[in-house]
Design a protein that fits this description.
- It is built from ten helices and seven strands.
- It has 285 residues and is an alpha/beta fold.
- The strands form two sheets. The chain has a five-stranded mixed sheet with strand order 1-3-2-4-5, sandwiched between helices. A two-stranded antiparallel sheet has the order 6-7.
- Helix 8 packs antiparallel against helix 9.
- The longest helix is centred in the last third of the chain and has 22 residues.
């Protein structure tokens, strides 16, 4: 059986991969630098017509080493598909590392060292073929606005399409601002308003009728992450619609005398990966 895979980074990205910032730019109290940087997902060969600017990697991304591969990524994949974009995209995040704790992103998104490195990625990716830049959420919007103040950012002719972050329903409902159902409707109304703009701006990979979202996500609105977006050899379940990674405490320091600090430390050091039940091939007759 033949498998597609992401072939790696062209030579023009070599300096970026050698010189990425670490704890000197990303304070460990606010970022999970211990899990390493996660750079992108999608086309690096200059064929991308949509540049997606996200926020920060989460648990699934930490394992797969590509951004936007969990549920948020599957929602974004569905949004692109509604615009007829099946392959011609590239994605980068506002931050190389996962934000740790509340407010870390807001405190640091404009930091000079973080922004300067992010601008180098945007300068390389937002070439002549990029027809639209899709920003997911407020931090991504702020990152884009900073880049627009640079010479290459100011010269970009790509249509800018800011939308709510795909995890808005979860974050808004967790904060008590709205019920999850109401927050989901608000997100999808926002995405429905952006879809015609995106479709008009971008040459589609596949001509497809515009089907707007309803008041909630349906199974058809989520898309499996394409195999060609991931490093070779990753199992199919790592790009499935099933959740398979979560932040979990490691066993150390969690005895009966464990303090709150011990528990926080253990959780930060832990990452649980489980093959989803439906993907457990040893159960197949």
């Amino acid at each position: 059986m033949a498998h597609e895979f992401e072939i790696g980074y062209p030579r023009r990205f070599a300096a970026l991969l050698r010189d990425y910032p670490g704890p000197e730019a990303y304070p460990p109290r606010d970022f999970r630098v211990e899990w390493g940087p996660i750079f992108h997902r999608g086309r690096l060969d200059g064929s991308a017509r949509v540049l997606v600017l996200g926020q920060d990697p989460a648990a699934h991304e930490t394992v797969a080493r590509r951004i936007l591969v969990g549920e948020a990524g599957q929602r974004v994949q569905g949004l692109l598909a509604k615009a007829g974009i099946e392959r011609s995209y590239v994605m980068v995040n506002t931050f190389l590392y996962s934000v740790y704790g509340q407010g870390g992103g807001e405190r640091h998104h404009a930091d000079e060292a973080i922004a300067a490195y992010r601008h180098r990625w945007l300068d390389l990716l937002a070439g002549d073929k990029v027809e639209a830049i899709l920003a997911l959420g407020g931090l991504a919007d702020g990152a884009y606005q900073q880049w627009r103040k640079t010479p290459k950012g100011a010269a970009s002719t790509a249509v800018y399409v800011p939308v709510k972050h795909p995890t808005y329903p979860e974050s808004a409902s967790a904060a008590g601002q709205l019920s999850k159902a109401a927050a989901t409707k608000k997100l999808l109304d926002n995405w429905n308003a952006a879809l015609p703009v995106l479709r008009q701006a971008v040459t589609p990979d596949v001509e497809t009728p515009l089907v707007p979202y309803a008041d909630r996500f349906t199974p058809a609105d989520l898309r499996v992450i394409p195999e060609a977006d991931l490093p070779p050899g990753l199992p199919d379940w790592m790009r499935s619609l099933d959740a398979w990674a979560s932040r979990q405490p490691v066993d150390e320091a969690l005895g009966p005398k464990a303090t709150r600090v011990d528990k926080v430390e253990a959780k930060r050091a832990g990452l649980a990966v489980r093959v989803p039940r439906k993907q457990r091939v040893w159960h197949t007759p």
